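Checklist before submission:
- one chain only
- standard amino acids only
- sequence pasted in full

Submission:
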Amino acid sequence: MQSVPVEQPTQGVRKAKAWGSFRNGPVTLVLSWATFATLAFLLWARGDQMVSGVRERWPELVFWVLVIVLLNLLHVELEPIQFTLDLPFLIAISILYVPPVAALVAFVGSMDVREFRAEVRVARAVYNRSQIGIGVFLASSGYHLLAGRLQEWPDALWGTAIATGVFAAANGIFVSTYVVARGQATFVSVWRRLHVGKPLEFFLTYFAYGILAYALSRLFLEMGTWSIPLFFAPIVVAYSALVRAERLQAFATRLQKRERLLEMLTDRVEDERRDERL
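Returned file contents:
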């Protein structure tokens, strides 16, 4: 599961209007294009490797792009963050391909349906795609530096764990930075909201996604593209579970607010009656 910032402002964030509007303009714009420039530099620095990799394996790369696009249609929105469920596939791409090729596939495939509804600006879309591309580049670099071949395990398992952790950390930092730059929340509050449901369940899901990414990579090498549809079922199940968990959590939060409001009203009534007796 990876996350991207959404457009809606978060209620309850205290900020001056002038500074908030300034951050929504030049600061986030510079941040967006600086992130894109960073990704472009990483791809340019290893351009020969990227070009040769795309030239040799472009049919399967197009297939991976379509898979990532399809998975991005499934998302869980928790303002000011939107979660998608393509993490196992992004990690698998990081394992299967060299960093520049994997990052290029992630950048192209990380489509946001809000782009077609004109709900996100160009700079925001560029930032979302770029930060995912950089995360995949770093994850792939970590894997190939530590592990190498998929058949060489347990090194391959350790490499997958490193790749998953690196991508999750990079994604969290990028999303938090952008949300804070927009003045939508504090850095700490964003980090707290980077999990859906209970923290333990969320991190166990991340761990399971890493194992799923490793299995997906092995089967892809042995069976080809026919192995990919086998992994859509657990992704859909995970999506349904996360949505249900988030709805329950939101319902529990509303109940707590109503209980506090009822307690306040009860205390006020008691105070008024006490005043009447006096």
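Reviewer check: Strands lie at 2-5, 75-78, 81-84.
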